[in-house]
Every structure is written in structure tokens, then in C-alpha cells.
Write a structure and sequence with these properties.
It is built from four helices and 14 strands. The protein is α/β, with parallel strands linked by helices. The chain folds into two domains: about 50 residues, no CATH class; about 250 residues, Beta Complex (Beta-clip-like). Strand 8 and strand 9 form a beta hairpin. It is globular. The protein binds S-adenosylmethionine (SAM). S-adenosylmethionine (SAM) binds next to strand 5 and strand 11. The site of S-adenosylmethionine has 19 residues, from strand 5 and strand 11. One of its GO terms (biological process) is methylation. It is found in: Chromosome.
Length: about 325
């Protein structure tokens, strides 16, 4: 057995333990000894190089020319989760990149799914004969909520495989993005390559919450946000019947566990992203996905409109910079 006091053993344990630590604990560990300081610096550099920590097909780096924060800390999930498995998630270790888990997507643990799908021949999926195609639905058309598009994709019960053309949103973030710090808005998601109109950008992934839990967290987040230095990322999606009555409400919280969509800032003029509710055959819950609403240049910030309502007291100041900026961020009672 290796002597625990040897420099090699110290570095080995640093390699194992430091990637599990949140920033404050990492800084504390760095002050322990020179070897830990060097190992912690390497962890920080690797974290700043990929917000997605190897869980998306492409790395998504942080860029900060505003202050000294190298990255934002949260647990990464490429898909929304019904239940969280407790425990820390390593981030910034020197091991090889984690395998990309974007295929097959896990089915939503705990949610019932209907048995349905298509049996299309190769390359027929999404076409007129595909049982999963919905002639009414489109990524940029009328949807269940004002400004929200809708789309149907192939799902778990379909005969098609990972390369199916009707699974555009199921293979993770395949466009180059970066997370950029702004003096007023905090972190924001930017295009790191030019995007054509209608390209899939990312899903809004996080924890699925009950409405009761969403309300409880919203109250807490409001308090923390009004004190500054806190950026909540809890979103409520309501799907309406044509009559206008709400029929389904989905609460997704990406504040502590989420994906890169948690960095998308608000724009009062609607922004350059189109939110789309995507429903896969066999899945009862829709997923919120973002597509480019127009051609987007490399370096542009990606934004969407959080909503129209500004009803909660102490609304936060909006810095979207749009011509029609309302001055206050949208906020509604959840
Ligand atoms: C979903 S998060 C977006 C990412 C966030 N900027 C961060 O640093 O993590 C939403 C929060 O970002 C900030 N934010 C988003 N859009 C903004 C805007 N137009 N003006 C000012 N702050 C904004 C607010 O703090 C808001 O509560």
C-alpha cells in the first residue's frame, strides 16, 4: 500500500477529491499546501474550459473580462430530471472526458409513458406517413403559449435509431456556444459560431418540481435575488387548451442542477431564440427547447423574452438594452 504521506499520494488524493468540491471548499483546500494549490488551479482551469463538464457533444467554455470569477458552479444535467440522485458531481478532474450520454436519452424516471411511436423505414421519420409527425406543429409557429412554438419528435417506442432526422433536440448541444460574463446581467449564453435560422440550440434542462415546491423555492429565490448576487433559473411552462384554460403546468428549476440554458438572459424585444415545446412520442411531458429565431452572428448573445408579466414587488432592473426595454425584468407569481 502506498504511504499516504508521499508527495505522489498527496497529488493522487487531490486529483480524486478536489473535482468534487464547490468553489469555496476548493479555495480552502488550495490553501492547505503547495501541491493542493497547484491541483486546485488546474481544476479551476478545466472547469472554466467547459461549463458542460464533458456531458455535451462540444465543450462550452466560460469567458470573463469583467471580474475575477472563472466559472459558475452548479451540477450539470443534459436532461431534466424527475428525481435527483444525491451526491457530488466531479468537475475539473484530469481524467479523460466523460462519455457523452446524450444517446439514448433516459426516459423520465417516475413518469408514465404511453406505448406509441412510429415504425418508419429509414429516413421516412417526420414525413407525411410518420405517426410522430404533427402537421399542425412547427418549431416557430403558433403554440400553446404566446410566442411559443411546438414540435413532435420520435420517442422511446419508435423503431428508428439515434440518427433519426425527427430527433433534432435529442442529441445534446451540437452548436458552438460560450458563457460570457456581463457587468450587469451576470453570465450570459453567446453563440461561438454563426447560426442559421431554425437551428436547434439547447433544451432548458433542470429539476422537475411540483407546483408546491416551485412556489416554495420561488419565494426563497425572490428574497435572495432582491439582496443581489443571486441568479435564479426557475421557469414555469403552461400549456393551454384552445379555450385558453391552462391544462398542463411544468416547473423546471435549473438554478442548482441544470444545463447551459440556465445562462440565457432576458430580452424585452423577444430576443433571438424561439422557445418551442417539444413532445416525443410516448412521453407525456413536453420539453422546452430553444431554436434560433433568425440568423445569428458569431459572438451574439442568445436571449429570449421571459414573459410579459411584471407583477412581483421589488422587480429586478432589466439591462437587456433593447429599444423597447421595460426597465424591469418580467416576474410573475408562480
Ligand atoms: C436564468 S438566469 C440567467 C443567467 C444569469 N445571468 C447568471 O449569471 O446565472 C436569470 C437571471 O439573470 C439575470 N438577468 C437575466 N436577464 C437579465 C436582464 N435583461 N437584465 C438584468 N439581469 C438579467 C437576473 O439576475 C435573472 O434573475
Amino acid at each position: 500500500m502506498r504511504n499516504p504521506a508521499t508527495p505522489g499520494a498527496v497529488i493522487e488524493s487531490a486529483e480524486l477529491v478536489l473535482p468534487l468540491l464547490p468553489p469555496r471548499d476548493l479555495a480552502a483546500a488550495a490553501s492547505a499546501c503547495r501541491a493542493f494549490r497547484a491541483a486546485a488551479a488546474a481544476v479551476t482551469t478545466r472547469r472554466a474550459a467547459d461549463a458542460a463538464r464533458g456531458l455535451e457533444p462540444l465543450p462550452i467554455p466560460f469567458h470573463n473580462r469583467v471580474d475575477s470569477k472563472p466559472y459558475a458552479y452548479f451540477l450539470y444535467t443534459p436532461f431534466s430530471l424527475a428525481r435527483l440522485s444525491p451526491g457530488a458531481q466531479p468537475w475539473g478532474g484530469s481524467g479523460t472526458r466523460a462519455p457523452v450520454p446524450t444517446w439514448p436519452r433516459p426516459s423520465l424516471d417516475g413518469f408514465p409513458s404511453a406505448v406509441c411511436g412510429c415504425a418508419c423505414e429509414a429516413e421516412e421519420c417526420g414525413g407525411p406517413r410518420c405517426a410522430c409527425a404533427d402537421a399542425e406543429a412547427d418549431a416557430a409557429g403558433s403554440g400553446s403559449e404566446a410566442g411559443m412554438g411546438s414540435l413532435r419528435e420520435c420517442g422511446d417506442e419508435c423503431a428508428c435509431g439515434p440518427a433519426c432526422g425527427n430527433r433534432r433536440t435529442q442529441r445534446g448541444v451540437a452548436v458552438r456556444l460560450r458563457v460570457v460574463r456581463d457587468a450587469h446581467k451576470g453570465w450570459g449564453l453567446h453563440a461561438a459560431e454563426a447560426l442559421g435560422r431554425g437551428q436547434f440550440v439547447c433544451e432548458y434542462a433542470g429539476e422537475f418540481l411540483t407546483t408546491e415546491e416551485a412556489r416554495r423555492r420561488q419565494r426563497l429565490y425572490d428574497e435572495l435575488a432582491s439582496a443581489g448576487k443571486f441568479s435564479p433559473a426557475l421557469i414555469v411552462i403552461r400549456e393551454h387548451l384552445p379555450s385558453g384554460k391552462a391544462c398542463l403546468r411544468v416547473n423546471i428549476d435549473a438554478t442548482k442542477v441544470g444545463n447551459v440554458a440556465r445562462f440565457i438572459n432576458h430580452s424585452c424585444d423577444g430576443g433571438n431564440l424561439q422557445p418551442v415545446l417539444v413532445r416525443a412520442s410516448g412521453s407525456l411531458l413536453p420539453r422546452l427547447c430553444f431554436f434560433s429565431a433568425r440568423d445569428i452572428e458569431e459572438g451574439e448573445e442568445l436571449t429570449f423574452c421571459y414573459g410579459d408579466a411584471r407583477v412581483r414587488p421589488n422587480g429586478l432592473r432589466c439591462f437587456c438594452g433593447g429599444l423597447g426595454c421595460c426597465g424591469v425584468l418580467p416576474s410573475e407569481e408562480t
